[in-house]
Amino acid sequence: KGKLLVDEETKWIVEKIFSLAYQGYGSAKITKILREEKVPTASWLNFTRYGTFAHIFEGKPESKRYEWTIAHVKAILKSEVYIGNSVHNRQSTVSFKSKKKVRKPESEWFRVENTHEPIIDKEVFYRVQEQIKSRRRQTKEKATPIFAGLVKCADCGWSMRFATNKANKTPYSYYACSYYGQFGKGNCSMHYIRYDVLYQAVLERLQYWAKAVQQDEEKVLN
Questions:
Q1: SS in 3 state form for 46-85?
Q2: pLDDT category, 98, cuts 50, 70, 90?
Q3: Most exposed: 107, 152, 171, 216, by fewest CB within 10 Å?
Q4: In 10 A of CB 123, how many CB atoms?
Q5: Edge-first strand listing for the sheet containing 160-165
Q6: pLDDT for position 94
Q7: Which residues pair with 92 in a beta bridge?
């Protein structure tokens, strides 16, 4: 009772994703392969089984069934549930007055191993984790962009990719829609924002809220 069971009909999808990652493919490439090979998403399978997510699929083109995202693939590759582990205490509330959830440092997570049957071999899983770490984008100064993985396209929801325009007389960095970058016109548009503009906008909002908290913390949290 309460024990996770392997879904025999769909575990091949998880196995395929890890197999591709183990071979050296990144999340973006895996996402593209899943779409091209028309591998169904979990949302589509839930719709066919239980009728959930009807608002997403009813009356929509067939391609919607295979609309994998990089974020979805990354979540699968990082989830220990596929090696039989259960991980708890990953989130907490801001305060007893607020229900807002915040992610805890991994050092505070509570991990219980071998709670259910694994799908992926641990050696494969941890090898993939090492590959993910080694693939993290770095700037010329070997510093990871501070907004990495946080900036999303307002239209399609995909992550905005970080890049640097070196062709300009004065090189500058920017974020652009990765979905458009991968699949081109007809899927999204070339949403774009300069890194320095984004940095300044975020800084101003942080300063605003920091000041607001100083003036009335209870009002801000509630």
A1: HHHHHCCCHHHHCCCCHHHHHCCCHHHHHHHHHCHHHHCC
A2: low
A3: 107
A4: 10
A5: 160-165, 172-177, 192-194
A6: 66
A7: 102
Buried/exposed code over 59-82 (b: 16+ C-beta within 10 A; e: otherwise): eeeeebbebbbbebbbebbeebbb
| Residues 143 and 135 sit within 8 Å (Cβ to Cβ) | no
* Burial of residue 2, with CB atoms counted within 10 A of its CB: 0-12 exposed, 13-18 middle, 19 or more buried: exposed
- DSSP 3-state assignment of 119? coil
Q: What does the alpha-carbon distance between residue 95 and residue 7 come to, in Å, rounded to a whole number?
A: 38
> Which of 162, 143, 140, 164 has the alpha carbon at shortest distance from 151?
162
Q: Is the pLDDT of residue 140 over 50?
A: no
SS3 192: strand
Residue showing tokens 């239980």? 50
Q: How far apart are the first and last CA of the chain?
A: 38
CA distances from 13 to 56, 63, 222 (A): 21, 17, 42
- Mean pLDDT confidence for 7-21: 93
Give the sign of the dihedral formed by CA 60, CA 62, CA 68, CA 72. positive
Amino acid at 190: M
